[in-house]
Amino acid sequence: MPQTRDTGYHHVRSGDTLYSIAFDYGLDYREIARWNRIISPYRIYPGQQLSLTPSDRKSLKSLAYYSKPVEDKSIRAWKPEQRGESPKPQARLTTTPTKKRTPSASRATASRSAAKTFPIERTESPQNQKVTASTKWRWPTTGKVVTRFALQKGKKGIDIQGQAGQMVLATAGGQVVYSGKGLIGYGNMVIIKHSDTYLSAYGHNRRLLVGEGEQVKPGQKIAEMGQRSKSGSILHFEIRKNGRPVDPMRYLPTKN
After folding, report:
1. Considering only the top CATH level, what class is 137-250?
2. Which of 32, 35, 39, 178 could form a disulfide with 20 if both were Cys (CB 3.0 to 4.6 A apart)?
3. CB–CB of 182/196 below 8 Å?
4. Cα→Cα distances 33→51, 83, 211, 242, Å
5. Residue-range domain boundaries for the chain
6. 5-53 classified as CATH 3.30.70.60
7. Taking the complete model, does pTM exceed 0.70, yes or no?
8. What is the pLDDT of residues 206-226, one digit of tens each?
Protein backbone atom coordinates (compact mmCIF):
# COMPACT_ATOMS: atom_id res chain seq x y z
CA MET A 1 0.00 0.00 0.00
CA PRO A 2 1.24 3.55 -0.69
CA GLN A 3 2.27 5.72 2.20
CA THR A 4 -0.16 8.52 3.07
CA ARG A 5 2.18 11.13 4.48
CA ASP A 6 0.03 14.06 3.35
CA THR A 7 -3.18 12.72 4.92
CA GLY A 8 -1.71 12.06 8.35
CA TYR A 9 -1.92 8.26 8.13
CA HIS A 10 0.45 5.40 7.36
CA HIS A 11 -0.59 2.00 6.04
CA VAL A 12 1.67 -0.64 7.56
CA ARG A 13 3.60 -2.73 5.03
CA SER A 14 5.43 -6.00 5.46
CA GLY A 15 8.76 -5.33 7.17
CA ASP A 16 7.63 -2.14 8.92
CA THR A 17 8.19 -1.68 12.63
CA LEU A 18 6.85 1.09 14.81
CA TYR A 19 10.41 2.37 15.15
CA SER A 20 11.09 2.44 11.41
CA ILE A 21 7.80 4.26 10.76
CA ALA A 22 8.57 6.84 13.46
CA PHE A 23 12.10 7.21 12.05
CA ASP A 24 10.78 7.80 8.53
CA TYR A 25 8.39 10.55 9.65
CA GLY A 26 10.71 12.17 12.21
CA LEU A 27 8.41 11.29 15.12
CA ASP A 28 8.84 9.67 18.51
CA TYR A 29 7.67 6.04 18.45
CA ARG A 30 5.94 6.62 21.80
CA GLU A 31 3.81 9.36 20.22
CA ILE A 32 2.58 7.07 17.44
CA ALA A 33 1.94 4.30 19.97
CA ARG A 34 -0.08 6.62 22.21
CA TRP A 35 -2.13 8.09 19.35
CA ASN A 36 -3.03 4.58 18.14
CA ARG A 37 -3.41 2.95 21.58
CA ILE A 38 -0.58 0.48 20.94
CA ILE A 39 1.07 -0.89 24.04
CA SER A 40 4.49 -2.50 24.54
CA PRO A 41 5.95 -4.54 22.83
CA TYR A 42 4.45 -2.36 20.05
CA ARG A 43 3.31 -5.03 17.59
CA ILE A 44 1.84 -3.82 14.31
CA TYR A 45 0.46 -5.74 11.31
CA PRO A 46 0.51 -5.34 7.50
CA GLY A 47 -2.54 -3.43 6.32
CA GLN A 48 -3.01 -1.65 9.64
CA GLN A 49 -3.64 2.09 9.37
CA LEU A 50 -1.74 4.24 11.84
CA SER A 51 -2.58 7.83 12.66
CA LEU A 52 0.41 10.19 12.57
CA THR A 53 -1.29 12.95 14.56
CA PRO A 54 -3.13 13.03 17.90
CA SER A 55 -6.91 12.79 17.80
CA ASP A 56 -7.14 15.63 20.35
CA ARG A 57 -6.32 18.74 18.34
CA LYS A 58 -5.63 20.69 21.54
CA SER A 59 -2.62 18.51 22.24
CA LEU A 60 -1.25 18.89 18.72
CA LYS A 61 2.31 20.19 18.82
CA SER A 62 4.87 21.09 16.15
CA LEU A 63 5.55 17.44 15.38
CA ALA A 64 7.81 17.80 12.37
CA TYR A 65 11.35 18.91 13.13
CA TYR A 66 11.30 21.26 10.14
CA SER A 67 8.08 23.09 11.09
CA LYS A 68 8.08 26.82 11.84
CA PRO A 69 5.69 28.89 13.96
CA VAL A 70 3.00 30.76 12.03
CA GLU A 71 3.22 34.53 12.29
CA ASP A 72 -0.06 36.27 13.10
CA LYS A 73 -0.53 38.99 10.44
CA SER A 74 -4.23 39.64 11.05
CA ILE A 75 -5.66 43.05 12.01
CA ARG A 76 -6.00 42.05 15.65
CA ALA A 77 -2.21 41.66 15.78
CA TRP A 78 -1.60 45.26 14.62
CA LYS A 79 -0.29 47.83 17.06
CA PRO A 80 -2.67 50.67 18.07
CA GLU A 81 -0.84 53.21 15.90
CA GLN A 82 -1.22 50.87 12.88
CA ARG A 83 -5.00 50.84 13.39
CA GLY A 84 -5.13 54.62 13.70
CA GLU A 85 -5.74 54.50 17.43
CA SER A 86 -3.87 56.30 20.13
CA PRO A 87 -2.20 54.00 22.62
CA LYS A 88 -4.06 53.61 25.88
CA PRO A 89 -2.52 55.50 28.80
CA GLN A 90 -0.83 53.28 31.30
CA ALA A 91 -2.32 53.10 34.75
CA ARG A 92 -0.37 55.01 37.38
CA LEU A 93 1.41 53.00 39.96
CA THR A 94 0.12 53.77 43.43
CA THR A 95 1.83 52.81 46.62
CA THR A 96 0.52 52.35 50.09
CA PRO A 97 2.54 52.91 53.22
CA THR A 98 3.85 49.75 54.78
CA LYS A 99 5.03 49.00 58.24
CA LYS A 100 8.72 49.24 58.87
CA ARG A 101 10.54 45.98 59.29
CA THR A 102 13.89 45.18 60.66
CA PRO A 103 16.64 44.68 58.01
CA SER A 104 17.06 41.00 58.89
CA ALA A 105 13.32 40.27 58.60
CA SER A 106 13.10 42.15 55.29
CA ARG A 107 16.01 40.21 53.81
CA ALA A 108 14.56 36.88 54.95
CA THR A 109 11.15 37.72 53.45
CA ALA A 110 12.73 38.84 50.17
CA SER A 111 14.81 35.69 50.02
CA ARG A 112 11.75 33.45 50.51
CA SER A 113 9.78 35.43 47.91
CA ALA A 114 12.57 35.16 45.35
CA ALA A 115 12.87 31.44 45.94
CA LYS A 116 9.16 30.97 45.22
CA THR A 117 8.95 33.30 42.22
CA PHE A 118 12.26 32.71 40.45
CA PRO A 119 13.42 29.08 40.84
CA ILE A 120 17.05 28.58 39.84
CA GLU A 121 17.73 25.97 37.18
CA ARG A 122 21.22 24.53 36.89
CA THR A 123 22.23 23.96 33.29
CA GLU A 124 25.44 22.69 31.78
CA SER A 125 27.33 24.56 29.11
CA PRO A 126 27.37 22.98 25.60
CA GLN A 127 31.00 22.03 26.16
CA ASN A 128 30.19 20.13 29.34
CA GLN A 129 27.22 18.47 27.67
CA LYS A 130 29.47 17.22 24.87
CA VAL A 131 32.01 15.81 27.31
CA THR A 132 29.26 14.01 29.24
CA ALA A 133 27.65 12.61 26.10
CA SER A 134 30.90 11.51 24.45
CA THR A 135 31.69 9.14 27.35
CA LYS A 136 28.61 7.05 26.42
CA TRP A 137 29.07 6.88 22.63
CA ARG A 138 31.77 5.61 20.27
CA TRP A 139 32.37 6.00 16.55
CA PRO A 140 30.46 3.44 14.45
CA THR A 141 33.41 3.06 12.08
CA THR A 142 36.71 4.72 11.15
CA GLY A 143 37.09 7.14 8.29
CA LYS A 144 36.70 10.73 7.16
CA VAL A 145 33.42 12.56 7.70
CA VAL A 146 32.50 13.70 4.19
CA THR A 147 28.99 15.00 4.91
CA ARG A 148 28.06 17.01 8.00
CA PHE A 149 24.76 17.38 9.81
CA ALA A 150 22.69 20.24 8.35
CA LEU A 151 19.00 19.77 9.07
CA GLN A 152 17.91 22.89 7.19
CA LYS A 153 19.48 21.33 4.08
CA GLY A 154 17.88 17.95 4.65
CA LYS A 155 21.04 16.30 6.01
CA LYS A 156 19.84 14.44 9.10
CA GLY A 157 23.13 12.78 9.99
CA ILE A 158 26.73 12.37 8.88
CA ASP A 159 28.42 10.29 6.17
CA ILE A 160 31.68 8.52 7.05
CA GLN A 161 33.86 7.43 4.12
CA GLY A 162 35.56 4.04 4.21
CA GLN A 163 35.98 0.85 2.19
CA ALA A 164 33.45 -1.73 1.06
CA GLY A 165 33.17 -4.47 3.65
CA GLN A 166 34.55 -2.30 6.45
CA MET A 167 33.03 -3.21 9.81
CA VAL A 168 30.20 -1.09 11.23
CA LEU A 169 29.97 -1.12 15.02
CA ALA A 170 27.23 -0.33 17.51
CA THR A 171 27.90 3.14 18.84
CA ALA A 172 26.43 2.11 22.22
CA GLY A 173 24.63 -0.87 23.72
CA GLY A 174 20.95 -1.45 23.10
CA GLN A 175 18.29 -3.43 21.25
CA VAL A 176 18.01 -3.75 17.47
CA VAL A 177 14.54 -2.46 16.59
CA TYR A 178 14.94 -2.48 12.80
CA SER A 179 17.13 -4.45 10.39
CA GLY A 180 16.21 -4.31 6.72
CA LYS A 181 15.96 -2.17 3.59
CA GLY A 182 12.39 -0.90 3.70
CA LEU A 183 13.21 2.78 4.25
CA ILE A 184 13.72 4.59 0.95
CA GLY A 185 17.08 6.35 0.65
CA TYR A 186 18.85 4.36 3.41
CA GLY A 187 19.62 1.02 1.76
CA ASN A 188 20.33 -1.84 4.15
CA MET A 189 19.82 -0.24 7.53
CA VAL A 190 20.05 -1.01 11.24
CA ILE A 191 18.31 1.00 13.97
CA ILE A 192 19.32 0.48 17.60
CA LYS A 193 17.29 1.66 20.58
CA HIS A 194 19.63 2.72 23.40
CA SER A 195 17.00 4.14 25.77
CA ASP A 196 13.52 5.63 25.72
CA THR A 197 15.16 8.82 24.45
CA TYR A 198 17.90 7.81 22.00
CA LEU A 199 18.10 5.78 18.80
CA SER A 200 21.02 5.39 16.41
CA ALA A 201 20.79 4.45 12.73
CA TYR A 202 23.31 2.96 10.29
CA GLY A 203 22.53 3.12 6.57
CA HIS A 204 23.93 1.98 3.19
CA ASN A 205 25.38 -1.31 4.40
CA ARG A 206 26.45 -4.22 2.20
CA ARG A 207 25.45 -6.87 4.71
CA LEU A 208 23.53 -6.80 8.00
CA LEU A 209 24.88 -8.94 10.84
CA VAL A 210 22.12 -8.49 13.44
CA GLY A 211 18.38 -9.05 13.48
CA GLU A 212 15.43 -7.31 15.08
CA GLY A 213 15.06 -7.93 18.80
CA GLU A 214 18.73 -8.76 19.28
CA GLN A 215 20.63 -7.16 22.16
CA VAL A 216 23.98 -5.66 21.14
CA LYS A 217 26.94 -4.45 23.15
CA PRO A 218 28.93 -1.24 22.60
CA GLY A 219 31.40 -1.77 19.77
CA GLN A 220 29.75 -5.00 18.54
CA LYS A 221 29.88 -5.67 14.79
CA ILE A 222 26.42 -5.08 13.35
CA ALA A 223 27.00 -4.64 9.59
CA GLU A 224 29.46 -4.32 6.74
CA MET A 225 29.87 -0.99 4.94
CA GLY A 226 28.44 -0.94 1.44
CA GLN A 227 29.07 0.84 -1.84
CA ARG A 228 26.93 3.89 -2.59
CA SER A 229 27.17 4.41 -6.35
CA LYS A 230 29.56 7.24 -7.30
CA SER A 231 29.95 8.37 -3.69
CA GLY A 232 32.12 5.34 -2.96
CA SER A 233 31.82 3.40 0.27
CA ILE A 234 30.21 5.33 3.09
CA LEU A 235 28.26 4.76 6.27
CA HIS A 236 25.32 7.05 6.84
CA PHE A 237 24.97 7.53 10.61
CA GLU A 238 22.22 9.28 12.56
CA ILE A 239 21.28 9.83 16.19
CA ARG A 240 17.65 10.56 17.04
CA LYS A 241 16.60 12.15 20.34
CA ASN A 242 12.89 11.68 21.05
CA GLY A 243 12.46 10.90 17.37
CA ARG A 244 14.12 14.08 16.11
CA PRO A 245 17.51 14.11 14.33
CA VAL A 246 20.38 15.66 16.30
CA ASP A 247 23.98 16.35 15.31
CA PRO A 248 25.99 13.15 15.97
CA MET A 249 29.19 15.19 16.29
CA ARG A 250 27.90 16.56 19.60
CA TYR A 251 27.75 13.06 21.05
CA LEU A 252 30.76 11.31 19.53
CA PRO A 253 34.31 11.55 20.92
CA THR A 254 36.63 14.09 19.31
CA LYS A 255 38.58 11.48 17.29
CA ASN A 256 37.48 8.26 15.61
Report:
1. mainly beta
2. 178
3. no
4. 9, 48, 22, 13
5. 5-53, 137-250
6. no
7. no
8. 999 999 999 999 999 999 999
